[in-house]
Amino acid sequence: RGIEEIANKELANINSLRVAFVDDLQSRIKQTNTQISEDENTSTIERQRIAFLENNLDQLTNVHKQLVRDNSELRCELPKMERRLMAKIERVKTIGSCSEGKQRKGNGRTAENAKGNRANENPGHAEEATDA
Description:
Layout: H1 2-121, H2 126-131
């Protein structure tokens, strides 16, 4: 009997240790699964974020390249446009000076015509009109 009681006590002790061990393993498995799930969610979110950032980087790179090309083209066109502008300014100056000359000549002819008309209207005052 003494040996049976000791054996039963040991079996009960081993059984309780086995139950505690199984419970501990199950709780650790739950914690690990939770961590794995969180890591998967985090890694999914991080992958999405990385994809988003890579897409933005590609778009910004393309826009930058286009702006560099546009800037280069505009720099090439600038001297041509400056030459055209200078030529237009010169033409405007030339036209302005020609029109001023015509106005002076036209004003002189108008004054001469007015004197001649006054002389024709007043034959006695023709000398005064020509002297003035």
